[in-house]
């Protein structure tokens, strides 16, 4: 399993602050990529039924297959979530999309996605100097090749996380050509992992290629935010999972401990801290 050095982490976090996104230096390990693809294919086939060319999006995908939960446990992502949120972060959202050239022309976040920022919504959340703080960090796992250029790659506007969503423009008032200088099209090889700030403007055009686009988005937020696309697990639903998986999925605890961790809570994800950091047990301000 790849793991980032402190230096790589510093560089990626600096990119996140400046550009609103970064690309992990290593591709996803082939075995993990293959397992996630097999899981996506299995769930997609079951959901499609006879509509074999339909695009399929599945929310809270981590509960559908252990390989998709393994993506949520990908060490470089957890290291970077730790960097931005400290030890008290958990899973905010997970979904996958399996998107062929489906010919629907829809921009419904299934067949394609229009330009937007994820929020958080409503946009009435506090801003500092006009910029929205980082409330969740989202990782896109692109599991199929997109280097051919017309597969409906994720696109972002570099630095847009520092501005209001689409500069406050609506409908045809927003023209992506006006931002051509900062437009980044992530026509990337299979196994590429891209992360972005939730306020980053992003979109994905329809897949116009013969290669089905398959990817997962997995995001993390502080434990004092509720997950976006699932309820907290009920008794028994986390049986057999690792301590880290149970933490990410939100195992039961008394209300105050979502906000004020006990020393053992601070320890749960402690192995993802930077090696140069003070050992977590010695940090008093989490008491
Ligand atoms: O279709 C895509 O890849 C983009 C998805 C998206 O915009 C989102 O999850 O907010």
Task: Explain what this protein looks like in three dimensions.
Strand 5 and strand 6 (131-132) form a beta hairpin. This protein has one domain (6-286): q2cbj1_9rhob like domain (Jelly Rolls). The protein has helices at residues 6-19, 30-48, 66-72, 75-85, 243-249, 263-268; strands at 21-23, 56-59, 89-99, 113-116, 127-128, 131-132, 137-142, 155-157, 183-185, 192-197, 202-204, 213-222. It is of the alpha+beta class. Helix 2 packs across helix 3. The protein has 6 helices and 12 strands. Helix content is 22%, strand content 20%. Bound molecules: 2-oxoglutaric acid. 2-oxoglutaric acid binds next to strand 11. 2-oxoglutaric acid is lined by residues 97, 109, 113, 118, 154, 202, 204, 217. InterPro entries: Phytyl_CoA_dOase-like (IPR008775). Pfam families: PhyH. This is Ectoine hydroxylase-related dioxygenase (Phytanoyl-CoA dioxygenase family).
Name the ligand types.
Answer: 2-oxoglutaric acid
H/E element sequence: HEHEHHEEEEEEEEEEHH
Provide the low-confidence segments as ranges.
281-287
Number of domains: 1
What's the arrangement of secondary structure elements?
Blueprint: H1 6-19, E1 21-23, H2 30-48, E2 56-59, H3 66-72, H4 75-85, E3 89-99, E4 113-116, E5 127-128, E6 131-132, E7 137-142, E8 155-157, E9 183-185, E10 192-197, E11 202-204, E12 213-222, H5 243-249, H6 263-268
Antiparallel strand pairs: 1-10, 2-3, 3-12, 4-11, 5-6, 7-10, 7-12, 8-9, 8-11
Helix pairs in contact: 2-3
The protein binds 2-oxoglutaric acid.
The site of 2-oxoglutaric acid (AKG) has 8 residues, from β11.
């Amino acid at each position: 399993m790849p793991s980032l050095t402190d230096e790589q982490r510093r560089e990626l976090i600096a990119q996140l602050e400046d550009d609103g996104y970064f690309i992990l230096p290593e591709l996803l390990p082939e075995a993990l990529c293959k397992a996630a693809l097999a899981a996506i294919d299995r769930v997609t086939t079951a959901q499609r039924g006879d509509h074999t060319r339909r695009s399929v999006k599945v929310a809270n995908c981590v509960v559908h297959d252990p390989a998709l939960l393994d993506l949520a446990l990908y060490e470089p992502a957890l290291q970077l979530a730790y960097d931005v949120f400290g030890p008290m972060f958990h899973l905010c959202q997970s979904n996958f999309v399996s998107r062929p050239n489906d010919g629907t022309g829809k921009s419904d976040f299934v067949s394609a996605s229009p330009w937007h920022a994820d929020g958080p919504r409503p946009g009435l959340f506090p801003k500092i100097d006009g910029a929205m703080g980082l409330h969740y960090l989202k990782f896109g796992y692109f599991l199929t090749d997109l280097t051919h250029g017309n597969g409906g790659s994720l696109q972002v506007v570099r630095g847009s996380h520092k501005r209001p969503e689409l500069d406050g423009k609506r409908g045809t008032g927003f023209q992506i050509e006006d931002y051509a200088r900062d437009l980044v099209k992530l026509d990337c090889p299979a196994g590429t992992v891209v992360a972005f700030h939730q306020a980053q403007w992003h979109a994905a055009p329809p897949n116009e290629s013969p290669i089905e686009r398959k990817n997962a988005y997995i995001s993390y937020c502080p434990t004092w935010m509720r997950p976006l696309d699932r309820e907290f697990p009920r008794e028994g639903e986390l049986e057999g999972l690792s301590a880290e998986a149970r933490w990410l999925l939100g195992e039961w605890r008394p209300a105050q401990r979502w906000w004020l961790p006990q020393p053992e809570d601070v320890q749960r994800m402690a192995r993802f801290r930077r090696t140069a950091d003070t050992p977590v047990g010695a940090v008093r301000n989490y008491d």
